[in-house]
Specification:
Elements (H helix, E strand, L loop, with lengths): L1 H53 L12 E2 L2 E2 L21 E7 L1 H4 L9 H12 L4 E5 L7 H10 L8 E6 L1 H9 L21 H13 L4 H16 L29 H22 L3 E6 L3 H4 L19 H12 L2 E4 H16 L16 H15 L16
Parallel strand pairs: 3-4, 3-5, 5-6, 6-7
Antiparallel strand pairs: 1-2
Helix pairs in contact: 3-12, 4-8, 5-8, 8-10, 11-12
Length: 397
């Protein structure tokens, strides 16, 4: 027994020593991990501060029924963004109706930054005449829907001028829905949303606070850029519903039916002709503009954030829209030229990059982009080509 006990003693002693050593090492491990965590946290905070200073456009964006990129949408009871406009005009008032899709509506922009609101502001500063500009644009709408809404609703405001800002998305969607019966755009008749409950209010506040950070969205955007570059995310339109701008730009590939782009532009011409005639019957004037995508307006790499293969694009969308406006004998606003001129002026004055589009979005304009379109529309309105008096008093049945 004594021999066995003595033979086990070294083992027990060794185990006990290892246990005491492990117990002593745990605080050191914890200290190392805590130090590493603090270093990582400081690094993350430093990167966040740098992004907040140098790249605030990466701040998160909150979208829901009442907000667009954290800005209140402010839909009024009449179904358009901004302050209500009474049916009765002031003496000598110039009234303008702005139509379009999400670009004119102002996705990611506050109401005051949209080109219709900027147009009203520029008009008041340059013209000795009262003005009202109604932003009746609806995201995801087509020219046929806009015409339908005009004939049944917006004409009752008796606009002297109707300015529609066409986009490649509208051209594509008009072809997709060419056989569908038009109806009122959904938001034009939208009822005010129900008041959120207490839990929903707290949840929204948490979301609004968290989206102030830049780093999460920065990492997400850079990851997507890499996926586009590697071809793991592509721009091929869906053959069953080729929405988005690529169809209008004549995307060359197996996913788009042969002749679809030509049909889409032909459909746009028919739809704009119907809108022109509807406006003319009321004594108003139609103005047609075109707002391009960022990758089409410039051919630099910085303007092609999603690596769109431009070699697959066979149609000059801005030129097509200009041609159609000329054939319809309506005033054309070249948004592409307006954006280029605005960028050149701003970059020459500030010596910095001016994108004119919101971050990682080749469709929607930022504040400066909307301002450029507003000035182009104002120039057209004040050039003498548009009558400032509504010739017919029309009341809806």
């Amino acid at each position: 027994m004594t021999t066995q006990t003595n033979s086990l003693s070294p083992v027990l002693t060794s185990s006990s020593t290892a246990a005491r050593s492990a117990a002593k090492s745990w605080p050191r491990v914890v200290r190392v991990l805590a130090t590493d965590a603090m270093i990582a946290l400081v690094a993350v905070l430093a990167v966040e501060c740098l992004l907040q200073w140098q790249a605030p456009e990466y701040r998160g964006q909150y979208y829901d029924q009442t907000h667009t990129a954290s800005h209140p949408i402010q839909m009024n009871d009449e179904g358009f963004r901004g302050q209500p406009v009474p049916l009765a005009k002031q003496p000598g008032e110039m009234r303008i109706l702005a139509l379009g899709d999400s670009v004119t509506f102002g996705t990611a922009m506050p109401v005051s930054a949209t080109w219709p609101a900027r147009l009203a502001e520029d008009w008041r500063q340059s013209q000795a005449q009262p003005v009202s500009v109604i932003n009746a644009a609806i995201p995801g709408s087509t020219v046929r829907q806009m015409t339908y809404a005009y004939e049944r609703k917006w004409r009752n405001w008796k606009p002297a001028a109707v300015a529609i800002m066409v986009t490649a998305n509208m051209v594509s969607l008009g072809w997709v829905q060419r056989d569908r019966e038009p109806g009122m755009p959904p938001l034009a008749n939208a009822a005010p949303p129900d008041a959120p409950g207490r839990l929903a209010k707290w949840s929204r506040q948490v979301d609004l606070w968290s989206i102030r950070l830049c780093l999460p969205r920065y990492l997400s955007v850079q990851s997507q850029r890499g996926l586009y570059l590697l071809g793991l995310i592509h721009h091929d339109p869906n053959v069953k519903a080729p929405v988005g701008p690529m169809l209008a730009y004549g995307w060359r590939g197996n996913t788009v039916p042969a002749g679809a782009a030509e049909e889409a532009w032909s459909q746009l011409e028919q739809d704009l002709a119907a809108l022109r005639d509807a406006v003319a019957r009321d004594g108003g004037t139609l103005i047609v503009g075109f707002s391009p995508t960022r990758f089409a307006a410039w051919d630099s790499l910085r303007d092609n954030e999603k690596w769109v293969p431009r070699r697959k694009l066979t149609v000059d969308a801005a030129a097509n829209c200009r041609r159609i406006a000329r054939q319809l004998d309506v005033t054309f606003i070249d948004g592409e030229a307006a954006l280029r001129q605005r960028r050149q002026a701003l970059e020459s004055a500030s010596h910095r990059n001016v994108p004119l589009f919101i971050c990682f979005d080749f469709n929607h304009l930022d504040t400066e982009g909307h301002g450029a379109l507003a000035k182009a529309v104002l120039s057209s309105l004040t050039s003498g080509q548009v009558s400032q008096h509504h010739a017919a008093e029309v009341t809806l049945p």
